[in-house]
Amino acid sequence: MATLNSLKINATHVEDQMISLTLTQEEAQPKAAVAPLFLAYHDRIRPLLHAVDELRHLKIMEEGIQLPTIVVVGDQSSGKSSVLGSLAGVNLPRGVDICTRVPLIMRLQHHPTSEPELHLEYHGQIVPTDETHVAKAISVATNEIAGNGKGISNTPLTLVVKKKGLPDLTMVDLPGITRVPVHGQPEDIYEQISNIIMEYISPKESIILNVLLATVDFSTCESIRLSQCVDKTGERTLAVVTKADKASEGLLEKVTSDEVNIGLGYVCVRNRIGVESYEEARREEARLFESHPFLSEIDKSIVGIPVLAQKLVQIQATSLEKCLPDIVKNINQKLSLNVSQLNKLPLHLSTTAEAIAAFMRILGSAKESLGKSS
Ligand code: GDP
Ligand code: MG
């Protein structure tokens, strides 16, 4: 009951908060790659996002109540973890092999002090970590959840990153899609991964962040095929095109012709390469889109990690605004149903006689309902 009561949200409060969510023209303009990103706006959205994250933590989705979630999908090695790492400014395990083997819920939060704070949450424990050790800590936690091999699990791992200037965003990184099992992977790895992906992207409350390699034909991407199964018109799909530095001349044409129906648009990025710091990577990215003979022709409103961060914050706000009234309604309905069932139970059973009497009453009503059905 304590949990249920803590779920009760005051609908008026949520609506009050939402009125102030509409972006002003100035806030909606992409800003330069400077921290802190869009702080005034974040002060308004943070309480709502926090409420949704708390609900996620209470496993409300297992009760059939969907929450607005940004879900990152992409074929294996398309750069999903690199994109999330770029947004958070922290190292996530990256690599050619299957690295992400469990859903990783990433909660990014701005916090005012210059010292970043990071921790992992899984199996009911909180494990503090720091920027240097976070990739290792994620690998250790993944092994604990999904085993030491190459298998995957649907039990999520949460990473909380609080750092000055971070956008307030919560996103879920999912294992990448592989067609052919590599050595040590179960035969049905494709089915297992696509089932997890479908579970996360099917609810209409989910925003799909589809990570695509600049170097491939988008229409051949498995992640496009999956997202089109649940979002045909692409109205809740945003595409991030990675490895822009490896792209050939046709990238501008690919993102403007939009052959694969991406309703929320494209953002082309260049992630961190090798041992670069995140600051160096952002500078290199800016330089690339500024001076490269054909990449510089792509409109600046659709290039770079800072633009991606801002778009995601805006999309998340719109989605919260749309979904919260229904979430509040569903929680309150569920709560009153549970409370009425609870009230039907005998409250105090302190003696054997009371327990027997209560048992006889239950037996009586069971007999009665059996009688009715026969
Ligand atoms: P995931 O399997 O989708 O999570 O992909 P990863 O983020 O692990 O990336 C796969 C590989 O591509 C890694 O070696 C990354 O360093 C590299 N990578 C990711 N993004 C870029 C990019 O924008 N440019 C270049 N050159 N390499 C990238
Ligand atoms: Mg990954």
Structure notes:
This protein has one domain: Rossmann fold, CATH 3.40.50.300. With 374 residues, it is α/β, with parallel strands linked by helices. The model is unreliable at 1-37 (pLDDT under 50). The longest helix has 40 residues, at 305-344. The two termini are 36 Å apart. Helix 2 (11-19) packs antiparallel against helix 11 (305-344). The protein has helices at residues 2-7, 11-19, 25-28, 39-57, 80-88, 134-146, 189-201, 222-230, 251-257, 278-291, 305-344, 352-373, and strands at residues 69-74, 104-110, 117-122, 125-129, 157-163, 169-173, 206-213, 237-242, 266-268. Strand 8 (237-242), helix 9 and strand 9 form a beta-alpha-beta unit. It contains 12 helices and 9 strands. Bound molecules: guanosine-5'-diphosphate and magnesium ion (MG). The site of guanosine-5'-diphosphate (GDP) has 20 residues, from helix 5. One of its GO terms (cellular component) is cytoplasm. Residues 64-325 form the Dynamin-type G domain.
Quick recap:
With about 375 residues, the protein is an alpha/beta fold.
Strand order of the largest sheet: 4-3-5-2-6-1-7-8-9
Instruction: Report helical residue fraction.
Output: 40-55%
H and E string: HHHHEHEEEHEEHEHEHEHHH
| End-to-end CA span | 36 Å
- CATH level 1 name: Alpha Beta
Largest sheet composition: 9 strands, mixed
Shape: elongated
Helices, by number, come to 12
GO molecular function, one term: GTPase activity
Keywords: GTP-binding, Nucleotide-binding
Protein name: Dynamin-type G domain-containing protein
GO cellular component, one term: cytoplasm
